[in-house]
């Protein structure tokens, strides 16, 4: 009989719809038909994941929604900073606030038919101010947020009401930041003292209201002046390390080892060149509550004054030091001549800036512990004579063992005080 199963039973529809969504769940279930072993058929609910399975006994009328296309996020626009890149340069854009316009208004009150002008002045625009903050030590934040805008002044209004002044934008920068105008390359300011500040974009003055233009012959003026326009500038920030003493020398001359010995700084120390990639400051304490700020300048190479090996990025940090401690490796791994290595550094300092080569210098013959004790005296005399100084004018030391490290600091302290007195 049509409409009946082989066993003679009447066909019955499943009471559930073929597709429904469980409340509170993101899964859709399908009403599928499965063939049983006795030749009959029964309905059951199966999730969509099983609808795509290889079981041929499952037939589904609906395979569910189409799978979504794979989502590939857009590349981030945040600039990536390489760990080897010095975070001591940044470019910022500053804009002061526009001055508010003056108001044209005439007083209108009951029983006062001719009240005269009462237009108020516009408020002054805010300025952009850079402040030296001793708690900052990097220009990294300016790489991600380089725009600084001051607030504009409000317009004047009637009843002789002046507009509100714009709020200044105060930007904090590390001590030792040098500011240049990108267009003219002139130095705007050199912030080397805590709390020192400079106005880099002055806000516009507010315009005059019409009450400023009244006179005995001109009692109802209808003119006013607009506020001064904004000042926009692109500035280049350059952070130069401020230290009393700068450690210079060829790569692997022992500068980082000496800094870790005389201070609590912990620069990376390894037996290969260019271990130090960024300047490392440290504070050396001497008896009598004396202190020296010592900076480990990354190793210079021949041609550094021309930019080789990031030479300009390293040499600029020596400009603000008062004294140079020049380390010469007495036992270089590459077998080079210590006298030649001394000449390379002196030549690069002079080529970069004549003032660098004239700075007071403490000459240190380092790594004496790696020299045979029987040959130490002869090597020191020979090296000092070739450089053109006496044996008593150099300090024979070892940063690793601490030999004569105190002598280096005492000589540097004396030279620093002499430089400050001048």
Provide an overview of this structure:
The protein is α/β, with parallel strands linked by helices. It has three domains: 19-52, no CATH class; 89-239, Distorted Sandwich (Spo0b-associated Gtp-binding Protein, Chain: A); 245-421, P-loop containing nucleotide triphosphate hydrolases (Rossmann fold, 3-Layer(aba) Sandwich). It has helices at 48-51, 141-144, 255-262, 311-315, 338-352, 354-357, 376-387, 405-421; strands at 19-21, 28-35, 41-46, 58-59, 89-95, 128-133, 147-149, 169-174, 177-181, 187-191, 197-201, 232-239, 245-248, 280-286, 290-296, 323-329, 361-366, 394-396. Strands 14-15-13-16-17-18 form a six-stranded mixed beta sheet, sandwiched between helices. The chain has a five-stranded mixed beta sheet with strand order 7-5-12-9-10, with no helix packed on it. Helix 5 runs parallel beside helix 7 (376-387). 34% of the residues are buried.
């Amino acid at each position: 009989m049509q409409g009946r199963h082989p066993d003679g039973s009447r066909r019955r529809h499943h009471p559930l719809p073929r597709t429904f969504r469980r409340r509170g769940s993101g899964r859709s279930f399908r009403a599928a038909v499965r063939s049983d072993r006795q030749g009959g058929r029964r309905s059951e609910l199966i999730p969509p994941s099983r609808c795509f399975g290889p079981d041929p006994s499952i037939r589904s009328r609906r395979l569910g929604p189409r799978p979504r296309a794979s989502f590939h996020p857009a590349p981030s626009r945040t600039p990536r900073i390489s760990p080897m890149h010095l975070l001591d340069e940044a470019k910022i854009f500053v804009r002061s606030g526009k001055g508010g316009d003056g108001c044209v208004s005439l007083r209108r009150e009951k029983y006062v038919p001719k009240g005269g002008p009462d237009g108020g002045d516009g408020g002054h625009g805010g300025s952009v101010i850079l402040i030296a903050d001793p708690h900052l030590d990097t220009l990294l934040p300016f790489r991600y947020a380089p725009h600084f805008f001051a607030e504009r002044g409000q317009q004047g209004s009637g009843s002789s009401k002046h507009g509100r002044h714009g709020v200044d934008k105060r930007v904090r920068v590390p001590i030792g930041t040098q500011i240049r105008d990108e267009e003219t390359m002139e130095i705007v300011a050199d912030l080397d003292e805590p709390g020192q500040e400079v106005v880099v974009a002055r806000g516009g003055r507010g315009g005059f209201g019409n009450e400023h233009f009244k006179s005995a012959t001109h009692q109802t003026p209808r003119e006013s002046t607009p506020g001064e326009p904004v000042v926009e500038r692109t500035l280049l920030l350059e952070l130069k390390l401020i230290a009393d003493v700068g450690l210079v020398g060829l790569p692997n001359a022992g500068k980082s080892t000496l800094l870790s010995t005389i201070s609590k700084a912990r620069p990376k120390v390894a037996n290969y060149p260019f271990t130090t990639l960024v300047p490392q400051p440290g504070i050396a304490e001497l008896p009598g509550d004396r202190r020296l700020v010592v900076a480990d300048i990354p190793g210079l190479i021949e041609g550094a004054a021309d930019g080789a090996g990031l030479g300009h990025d390293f040499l600029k940090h020596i400009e603000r030091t008062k004294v140079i401690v020049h380390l010469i490796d007495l036992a270089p791994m590459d077998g080079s001549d210590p006298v030649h290595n001394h000449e390379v550094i002196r030549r690069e300092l002079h080529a970069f800036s004549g003032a660098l080569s004239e700075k007071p210098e403490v000459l240190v013959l380092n790594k004496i512990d790696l020299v045979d004790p029987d040959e130490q005296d002869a090597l020191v005399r020979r090296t000092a004579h070739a450089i053109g100084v006496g044996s008593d004018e150099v300090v024979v030391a070892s940063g690793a063992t601490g030999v004569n490290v105190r002598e280096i600091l005492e000589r540097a302290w004396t030279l620093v005080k002499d430089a400050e007195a001048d």
